[in-house]
Amino acid sequence: MKWLRWIGIGVLAVLVGLQFIPARTNQSTIVLPTDFVKAYNVPEDVKSILAVSCYNCHSNNTNYPWYSRVQPVGWYLENHINKGKEDLNFSEFGDYSVRKQQSKLKSMISQVEDGEMPLPFYTFIHREARLSENSKKRLVDYLKTLNE
Amino acid sequence: MKKTMIMLVLALVSWGANAQHDHSNMGHSTEGHSKMANKSMEQSNVEVERSKSASAIIDNYLALKDALVADNSKKAASSGQMLFDAFEEFDISAQPKSQQKELGEIIEVAREHAEHITENNGNIEHQREHFELLGTDVKDLVIITGSDRNLYQIFCPMYNNNEGGSWLSASSEIKNPLFGSKMLKCGSVQQNITVK
Predict the structure, then answer these.
(1) What is the pLDDT of residues A86-116, one digit of tens each?
(2) Are B37 and B148 in contact (CB under 8 A)?
(3) A113 contacts in B (CB within 8 Å)?
(4) Most CB contacts within 10 A, which of A22, B16, B61, B169?
């Protein structure tokens, strides 16, 4: 059974080693002029809904939870955030073409209306990110005013 | 189905709540209705040049539409991939310089819709949402590049909780890709895109 012990030690060593490889790269203190909230001069209440329910995966600044320091969980999150930003990045929204902005607005409206976003898996862990019926309606109504 | 019912109930409840607070609601609702009716009745014409440059895009867009008419999510996903490839291969540099920026923006957006349709194999309603958005882009593209065949833009006022949705077809016969077999006949020609 000695070999089993060595495998155990080996796995442990790798896991410890992994902790030294940084993740948490999606952090920025600057709110760019291209940010959705600046480009459209978004009212405060909508801004806070977006910050709590959307910006963690769809902007250049993630408010990381403590367990993002634990690998490989942190890498999983990082990967998830990159995918989210690829589809929609609020920090760069103002740089999108008008066509792309309008297309993204339509997608946002239907995703939020249908309860597809924020992801149910995400809101299961982040209870605070769940949209109440009121904030959902507020967000959708606001997005509709921007969508021609 | 359950989702639709919930949406319906929510819509009714919120309408009821609005009506309580706002007595002019009747005015709004008739206004909305007539706007919708106008939207579906207007029929306009647009003429485009005869050109084969967007043929691959049109072919694959129409194949995607047919897959959705047939409620075939898997086939829609594979057509989405072919359409994605057609956008990738489209030669913008062969188009007039003045139109290249616009075409670049159209293709960037349209390509993403095609990609999502492929990724959402099994989720046909989500595929349909992206397909509906894609229609505008393909139409705008064809108006710039020209077409090798006549096309019809068809509008169904019932899609998306009565906000309406449209698509392109090579035939004026109505076969609805946004609802499929659930409401195959919903729609009427909104615009004729005719080759000069």
Answers:
(1) 999 999 999 999 999 999 999 999 999 988 9
(2) no
(3) 7
(4) B61
